[in-house]
């Protein structure tokens, strides 16, 4: 074969491989193959949802579930790179609830309008819809929700503390008696620390940013929040590993028997049941403790929203698939197998859920009064600034730390200075 001909054949082969690698396109028999990028799920719930929807589409499409990296930062980084390159193979993506403003402002996700928007909002929790909305426009559909509760051992305390001050006092008493007394909470320099701070600030009646998200708000509520973090870190209640702890480390510490209290997501309940049945007999839950006595906490909402890529070649099928992926059947499976609370209100009274989620009513109550993290395209920078300012928690000086944080947030919003 002449050299030029060989080069042409090789080029065709390379192009064919590259196109296949981008995903999307059609499968056998002309069915559209939709590529869904989401967090890595080890329970099998997401794959089951993808299979269910492909089956129920009547052959119009199938869904290929692609696992993103484990960490939220890694997930965002991969999606940003693909979308910045106008990748047509990103049909559906799972967005962390903080990403909607950034992705919408960049033009990377499609807006939901008309009848589709109405269907997306049916039976959906209001706070969850807020996370998927930017400038009054809906850009994603809540797939699941999430919130934290207070978990505690009733063999150590007879009743759950109602406030952070009460919880610290209970921990001190337990420490004096040489009993397990740690308060497990997310103190590492990452998103979990920002979530803790946001919950404390909003529970004290404030916010991190102004309502239009153009400047820091903070003020006395933020000083109060910083004081709670400092007081926990300097008390006997502080786990020695507080400044390095994330959600899973909190879970493991509680299961090891060294802690009396834990602020964490519902996934800790089935884990304790399976891993430590003796401790599970004393494992209880209660509403997140108040910052201000008499004022219920406003816990920061979590979860995943499903969006359709702006460059998808199959937007109509992708939107149909999103509504299927987050339908009642699939959300119930996701809750029971994956441990993730639903975004559909009616499921919280379903017998199938309440049997495995005896705390369902408490989760729903927390979600109905939930706070949302600052909604801004610059959220990533704002979050990094918050976590940096509060780390390590034991070094927080409430007034000074909050004053310095205000300047860092101004820089983050204006894309000025260096990200910590």
Could you name the key traits of this structure?
five-stranded mixed beta sheet, disordered N terminus, alpha/beta, globular, single chain, four-stranded mixed beta sheet, 420 residues
Brief overview:
The chain is α/β, with parallel strands linked by helices and 420 residues long. It has 18 helices and eleven strands.
Structure, explained:
The protein is built from 18 helices and eleven strands. With 420 residues, it is of the alpha/beta class. Helix 2 links the parallel strand 1 and strand 2 (61-67). The longest helix is centred in the first third of the chain and has 19 residues, at 3-21. The radius of gyration is 23 Å and the shape is globular.
Describe the SSE topology.
Layout: H1 3-21, E1 32-38, H2 45-56, E2 61-67, H3 72-84, E3 92-96, H4 100-105, H5 114-121, H6 126-131, E4 133-134, E5 137-138, E6 141-146, E7 149-153, H7 164-176, E8 182-184, H8 191-203, H9 219-233, H10 247-256, E9 259-264, H11 268-275, H12 277-280, E10 283-286, E11 302-308, H13 315-325, H14 328-338, H15 351-356, H16 360-368, H17 379-389, H18 398-413
Parallel strand pairs: 1-2, 1-3, 8-9
Antiparallel strand pairs: 3-11, 4-5, 6-11, 7-9, 7-10
Helix pairs in contact: 2-14, 8-9, 8-17, 9-18, 17-18
């Amino acid at each position: 074969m002449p050299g030029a001909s060989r080069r042409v054949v090789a080029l065709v082969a390379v192009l064919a491989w590259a196109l296949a690698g981008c995903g999307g396109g059609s499968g056998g028999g002309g069915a559209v193959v939709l590529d869904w990028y989401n967090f890595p799920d080890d329970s099998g719930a997401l794959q089951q949802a993808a299979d269910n929807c492909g089956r129920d589409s009547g052959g119009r499409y199938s869904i290929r579930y692609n696992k993103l990296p484990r960490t939220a930062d890694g997930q965002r980084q991969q999606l940003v790179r693909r979308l910045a390159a106008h990748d047509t193979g990103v049909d559906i993506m799972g967005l962390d609830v903080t990403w909607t403003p950034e992705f919408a402002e960049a033009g990377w996700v499609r807006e939901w309008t008309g009848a589709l928007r109405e269907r997306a909002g049916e039976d959906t929790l209001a706070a969850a819809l807020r996370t998927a909305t930017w400038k009054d426009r809906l850009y994603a559909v809540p797939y699941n929700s999430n919130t934290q509760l207070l978990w505690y051992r009733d063999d150590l305390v007879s009743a759950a503390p109602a406030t952070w001050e009460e919880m610290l006092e209970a921990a001190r008493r337990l420490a004096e008696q040489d009993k397990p007394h740690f308060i497990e909470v997310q103190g590492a320099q990452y998103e979990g620390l920002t979530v803790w701070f946001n919950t404390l600030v909003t529970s004290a009646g404030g916010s991190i940013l102004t309502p239009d998200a153009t400047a820091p708000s903070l003020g006395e509520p933020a000083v109060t929040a910083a004081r709670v973090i400092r007081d926990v870190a300097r008390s006997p209640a502080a786990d020695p590993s507080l400044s390095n702890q994330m959600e899973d480390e909190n879970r493991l510490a509680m299961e090891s028997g060294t802690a009396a209290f834990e602020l964490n997501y519902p996934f800790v309940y089935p884990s304790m049941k399976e891993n430590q049945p003796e401790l599970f007999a004393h494992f209880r839950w209660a509403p997140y403790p108040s910052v201000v006595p008499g004022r219920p906490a406003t816990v920061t909402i979590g979860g995943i929203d499903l969006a359709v890529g702006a460059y998808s070649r199959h937007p109509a099928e992708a939107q149909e698939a999103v509504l299927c992926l987050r339908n009642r059947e699939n959300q119930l499976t996701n809750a029971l197998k994956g441990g993730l609370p639903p975004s559909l209100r009616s499921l919280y009274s379903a017998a199938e859920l309440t049997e495995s989620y005896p705390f369902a009513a408490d989760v729903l109550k927390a979600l109905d009064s939930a706070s949302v993290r600052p909604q801004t395209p610059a959220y990533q920078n704002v979050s990094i600034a918050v976590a940096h300012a509060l780390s390590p928690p034991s070094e927080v000086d409430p007034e000074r730390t909050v004053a310095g944080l205000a300047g860092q947030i101004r820089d983050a919003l204006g894309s000025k200075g260096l990200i910590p």
